[in-house]
Amino acid sequence: MPDEPLVLGIETSCDETGVGIVRGHTLLADALASSVEQHARFGGVVPEVASRAHLEAIVPTMTRALDEAGVTLADIDAIAVTAGPGLAGALLVGVAAAKGYALAADKPIYGVNHLAAHVAVDTLEHGPLPEPAIAMLVSGGHSSLLLVDDLAHGVTPLGATIDDAAGEAFDKVARLLGLGFPGGPIIDRSARAGDPASIVFPRGLTAAKDQAAHRFDFSFSGLKTAVARWVEARERAGEPVPVSDVSASFQEAVCDVLTAKAIDACLSHGVSTLVIGGGVAANSRLRVLAEQRAAKHHIRVRVPRPGLCTDNGAMVAALGSHLVAAGVRVPGCRVSPHEVKRAPGGESWPPPRRRSPASPPRWPGTPRSPWP
Ligand code: KG4
Ligand code: ZN
Fold it and tell me: In what helix (H) or strand (E) does residue 239 lie, and over which residues does it extend?
């Protein structure tokens, strides 16, 4: 609908430079440039390489997004940009670009939380999100369970990984199996030819003793080590490593824990909608297992298509559009020449914080936690 807000979103928190444009819940453009190939030989994202790649990609990606949507910067009602969490140098490129464009075109600017944006992107495919909902965000940088009671005003973290993120575990296991980077899609494919029950790998933080302190937290570092030890033992014995069986068994351990905890979070909070986002949400086994387990409890699972699960600009635009529609105003976020002058010291970005130990500062659409 033409009277819905036209919002442009910029994402640069990790290795994808994304610029998305939405009108309300309608996706008009989703331009993406990835530096993933530049990181492949290191087996993980190198922050400085990512920052430089963002710097080179941001303007062309912006131009592509505007062309794809058939709009100009002047048509845009608001600019949203990922303000955290993420790699500091990478975030800086997106934030600086957003401020520059906002200043040039005199547009309001929303600094949004990356995790909340992963949740919001689902609205582009499946419409408004029933609230409350439980969101599980699983990517290379984070594994979190969130209670989404009001996306416009914040989300409540229930738990997160205490060591490796789920995608990081996929990447590290793929590396030790010599499969390449990023590991998730490769393990997903390799697992199709394997037996998920052939090796029983540990399920982190699922023991009865962990329930009190870590009911909704994850741990994948022990699993990764268990895979490494298992592979080493085979190699020491001079036996071939059954790569597909290891992939399938490892993937099963990750998906078992993720889905069990997500369903538990839904049941314990009386919530009947589960949204899954982040790169690992593209995993074929995770999607099937989540559906199967949720159906038993009449819980609806919403997962965006794989291209929207991984980092992109559309998710940031989607959250920005939600904030604009909800009438959220961001004091101090409107970029003025005065603010830009003070910007190098970071005084105006993030906007002035109201520090109080009892209530940590919150971005609109950000979790109620001390996250950036
Ligand atoms: O959300 P994302 O693009 O970037 C971060 O915010 O990290 O997620 C990237 C992560 C990588 O670790 C990648 O291996 C994983 O998502 N991933 C997958 C699959 N596709 C991507 N993991 C498991 N199965 C997949 N099919
Ligand atoms: Zn992400």
Answer: none
